[in-house]
Design goal:
single chain; 107 residues; alpha/beta; three-stranded parallel beta sheet; 3 strands
């Protein structure tokens, strides 16, 4: 539940074409975040929808305003699952690996 102590620490969050329904769940003090999202994603909008769902752009903007270390990488021409395919997005895996390496260096 909320406020529950975990037996581990989360040092970073990788968002591949994800969304949230409530931007308020992203708060000051949360771990760093990297969002990688295709600009042609038809499954999950990169922006906000009329239904109140928020993709990578508003996630990044909200996280930055909350003081989180947040990176946004928009992959031109990429669709929903392209960010997880090394053939369609050769830069995506190196971005995620660099982020994980840097996140693991933080206390």
């Amino acid at each position: 539940g909320e406020g529950e102590t975990l037996p581990f620490s989360i040092r970073g969050v990788i968002n591949l074409s994800g969304l949230v329904a409530d931007l308020g769940m992203i708060e000051e003090g949360e771990p760093p975040l990297i969002s990688i999202h295709g600009d042609r994603d038809q499954a999950v909008a990169i922006g906000s929808t009329n239904a109140g769902l928020h993709g990578s752009i508003p996630i990044h903007e909200h996280a930055s305003k909350a003081g989180l270390a947040s990176e946004l990488h928009i992959i031109r021409g990429a669709e929903h699952n392209d960010t997880a395919d090394t053939q369609l997005c050769p830069e995506c895996m190196p971005l995620a690996k660099r982020f994980m390496f840097n996140a693991m260096q933080r206390p």
